[in-house]
Amino acid sequence: MKILGIELGSTRIKAVLIDENANVIASGVSEWENELVDGFWSYPLSAVKDGMQEAYANLIKNYGQPLTTVDRIGISAMMHGHLAFDKDDNLLVPFRTWRNTNASKASEILSPLLSFNVPMRWSVAQYFQAVLNNEEHVKKIAHLNTLSGYVHYLLTGKRVLGMNDASGIFPLAGLDYDQERLEKFDTLLTSYDIEGNFKDLLPSVLPAGAEAGTLTEEGAKWLDPTGNLQPGIVFCPPEGDMGTGIVATGCVAPLSGNISSGTSANLTIVLEKPLKDYYKELDVIATPDGYPAIIIHTNNCTNEINAWVNVFDEALSLFGVKVDKTELFTKLFNHALTSDEKVGGMSGYNFLAGEGLAGTDLGAPLLVRGQEGKLTLANLMQTQIYSAIATLALGVDILDKEGIKIKNILAHGGYYKTPIVGQSATSAILKTPVTVMTTSSEGGAWGMALLALYSTQNSTTLSAFLDKIFASAQKSTLIASEEEQKKCDEFIKNYKKYLPVAQTASKLQ
Question: Quick one: which of 343, 336, 301 has its CA closest to 486?
Answer without folding.
Answer: 343
